[in-house]
Design a protein that fits this description.
Elements: H1 2-17, E1 25-30, E2 33-39, H2 42-45, H3 52-64, E3 72-78, H4 82-91, E4 95-100, H5 102-107, H6 113-119, H7 140-147
Parallel strand pairs: 3-4
Antiparallel strand pairs: 1-2, 1-3
The structure holds zinc ion.
Zinc ion (ZN) binds near residues 80, 81 and 83.
Length: about 150
């Protein structure tokens, strides 16, 4: 376990030293083997979703050619942000191990506490307002999915 966490931390450190992204690294492990790696690549890829955990999940899913990480473990250099936590729950690994806490990250300018707070605010009052819009066909995709015999449940 320590070996994998040390590797995740090393990925994070390498990312800073190589000036390729933020100080975050993650790996996905199955049965003691590394099946995915990720570093924070937000600035390099100009992709706000390119957090280390998401990158590692993408890498492992590509490796397995699957959208699920059954029986996998994720080792991340820092406690996942809300976006990564969502991605982790969708990927369904069996456990997540983290080194630094979100409080540690906040001390160096990576504060995601406001996202947790925004979840408690009514949609229209959030910092980024979210409004419901309902065109006539808004439920058509759900109906089509519900009736589809070719859908792949996930
Ligand atoms: Zn994240």
């Amino acid at each position: 376990m320590d070996k994998f966490m040390e590797m995740a931390v090393q990925l994070a450190l390498d990312n800073v030293r190589g000036n390729t992204g933020g100080p975050f690294g993650a790996i996905v492990v199955k049965d003691g083997e590394i099946v995915g790696v990720g570093q924070n690549n937000v600035t390099r890829l100009k992709d706000p979703t390119a957090h280390a955990e998401v990158q590692a999940i993408r890498d492992a899913c590509h490796f397995f050619s699957s959208y699920q990480l059954d029986d996998c473990e994720i080792y991340t250099s820092c406690e996942p942000c809300p976006m990564c936590l969502g991605a982790i729950f969708w990927a369904r690994p069996k456990a997540v191990y983290y080194a630094c806490t979100k409080e540690d990250a906040a001390k160096i300018g990576f504060d995601d506490q406001f996202i947790y707070e925004q979840l408690e605010v009514p949609h229209e009052d959030r910092q980024i307002p979210m409004m419901k819009v309902s065109p006539k066909n808004s439920d058509a995709p759900f109906q089509a999915w519900d009736c589809s015999s070719e859908k792949v449940s996930y």
